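Q&A FORM
Asked by: J.P.
Topic: structure of Uma2 family endonuclease

PROVIDED:
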Amino acid sequence: MTVMTDRPHMLTEDFEAVARVAAREVEGLRLEFIDGVIRSKAVPDGDHDRRDRVEKPLAYARTGIPVYLLIDREACDVTVFSEPDGRRYANTRTVEFGNDVELPDPVNVTLRTEVLKDWVR
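REPLIED BY: S.T.
REPLY: Here is the structure written out as tokens.
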């Protein structure tokens, strides 16, 4: 999902600093900066649970990424990490597939997860 706004959330120079920190913290992480919005991609591997649930949220919170959405097809749940305080995310909410979940500022979207049941491994 890409969020479009009328102005960038950060300057290119700030993004480059964030990308350097994130690359050191999370192996296989790739950040893209498009129209002032950060999108992240990572290469999953066998140790994805620790990486996705511990390492990525810590790295993203430290760099100020406002919302991290984790969709876990094995556990059949969605976790929203938000409100980074510079060390970690202060708010974490997990819902099972089939329940709606709110993605807070700057995304401001209600994600309907019922359709995700069709993508379970």
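FOLLOW-UP: The helical segments are 12-25, 48-62.
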